[in-house]
Amino acid sequence: MGLSAMADKLSSWGYAISPETLTKKFYNPWLEVFPRRKTATKEFDVVEFLGKTLPVGELTASQIKELLLGFHEPTAQAAVTDEGTQATLKNLKAAGIKLGVISNSPIPGYCHDRTLELLGLLPYLDTRLYSYDEGLRKPDHKIFRRALDMTGATPETAVMIGDSWSLDLAPACEMGMRVLHYQSPRKKAEEIPSSTATLGLAKISLIRESEPILFRFLRE
Q1: CATH number for the domain including 118?
Q2: What's the pTM value of the predicted model, to 2 decimals?
Q3: Three-class SS of residue 170?
Q4: I want to staple 172 with a disulfide (CB 3.0 to 4.6 A). Which of 43, 93, 160, 217 is the partner?
Q5: Per DSSP, what are the bridge partners of residue 203?
Q6: Are residues 162 and 103 part of one domain?
Q7: Number of compact structural domains in the chain
Q8: Which DSSP helix (H) or strand (E) runs through 67?
Q9: Distance between CA atoms of 43 and 54, rounded to whole angstroms?
Q10: Hey, which bits of the chain come out as E strands?
Q11: Quick count: other Cβ atoms within 10 Å of Cβ 55?
């Protein structure tokens, strides 16, 4: 994470706070609550953790955004995606398919938008819902309904692509969506309960493999 960048920016604003202090008083306490996210209904406020280190009330919203973007920048720079993902999204969007992202995120959505921008994917995503901004976390059906409403879709006309059964696929199935189980080569695959075999889940290991499947759905 970009703690040094945060310290440099704070110094330029007249706050002498070292990266080591930010690590001890902001970053480590923030990480310590991560296990509790699994049972939380919304994300923890990262700005509250910043407040343990500096007087955030003296900062403007744009300054806080600048700090958090600097904090996230190394992660954004290191992000990778499957080969062919950008071309796939471009083809799907050109065909009139509305595309979106629903993500459980411990930081504001503008940080993830930065990642998507660097990956070249941002222009193709019509809807982006981040739990930090929405005050809801997957698997809450309400965040899925918001995505459907924003794209003008219904569960019957929507497809959810996800790598988590409990957070992505199960709630989508419960709502009547079709789903694609994405088994990323960079992440250990989550087990799908055997009782779900009748749902007819399609599996993909690369995002580009979704393209013919989605076009087939369009023809049905």
Answers
A1: 3.40.50.1000
A2: 0.91
A3: helix
A4: 160
A5: 181
A6: yes
A7: 2
A8: helix 61-78
A9: 21
A10: 100-103, 127-130, 159-162, 178-182, 202-204
A11: 9
